[in-house]
Structures are given as C-alpha cells and as structure tokens.
Amino acid sequence: MRRKTANKISVLLIIALMLTMLSSCTVFKRSAVALAATDFCTTLKTGKATDILHMTDGLEKDFKKSFRDLLNSDNYSEEENTFNEHMLASIKFEIDMSTVVINKDKAKVKIDFTIADHNALKGGNYATIDALTQAVD
pTM of this prediction? Predict the structure, then answer.
C-alpha cells in the first residue's frame, strides 16, 4: 500500500509540474493563467485521472493508460482508497504570480505543492484506518 501511494503521489506531482511545461494555451492574461492553474490544482486534488488528463497536453498514450490505472480506485481496497482520499485532501498549493511568463500562445507559472508527510507516517503503529487517516489530517 505504501509503495502504491508513494507512486501515486509522485505521479500526481509530476503531472502538476508538467502542466507548466506542456500546457497549450491561448494568449492568457495573468488572471487567466492564475485561474487555469487553480483549476488544474483543484482537479489534481480530486484524483480523477480522466479529468486531470483532460487538462494536460503532449503526454504519450502509454503514460496516460498507466496514469489511469494508477488512479483507478477499483485497483485498491476500501482502506487504501480511504487513505488515498485523505492524502489527496492534504494537498495544498500556492501559485506564485510573480513567476507568470506569457510567450505568444503559451504560459507558465510556478506552483508550490505541499502534502502530508508520507515518510513520517511509516513509523506509526496504526491499529485502524481511522487512526492512520487522523494522522494524515
């Protein structure tokens, strides 16, 4: 479970970073860039692969398939899904508007993400999923 969760979190953060590099944009004003970044980050927190992938561009078909498989809740137990939901809910983001760069039809902005410390949870002795999710929160 821990390895799958770590992989899932890593992939989500990579996708978020790739947004700034791969996103095809029309000419955005600064506020439109902030809105697009906020929409993406909010969608990222849902953990819904299809919605996340709709907001990206330039990803290979094999990557998209494995990303969908990774975020498919049918591949996890009820407890793993509960844990994953709490980890996703712990994601916080801050859009650094001073880094907005608009170049013709592309834009980029720096987004700082924080998430519950997955490594700190490893040493705990959690008797129930509720105890583990409380530690995440």
Answer: 0.68
Judging by beta carbons within 10 Å of its beta carbon (0-12, 13-18, 19+), is residue 5 exposed, middle or buried? Answer: middle
State the DSSP code for 62: H
Question: What gap in Å lies between CA 96 and CA 119, rounded to an integer?
Answer: 27
The residues facing 8 across adjacent strands are none
Task: Give the burial class of 58: count Cβ atoms within 10 A of its Cβ; 0-12 exposed, 13-18 middle, 19 or more buried.
Answer: exposed
pLDDT digits (tens, 9 = 90+) for 29-56: 788 888 999 999 999 999 898 898 888 8
Band (pLDDT 50/70/90 cuts) for residue 117 is: confident
Q: What pLDDT score does 21 carry?
A: 53
Cβ–Cβ under 8 Å, residues 34 and 95: yes
Amino acid (1-letter code) at residue 120: A
| Whether residue 26 has pLDDT greater than 50 | no
**How many other C-beta atoms lie within 10 A of the C-beta of residue 63?**
15
3-state secondary structure at position 72: coil
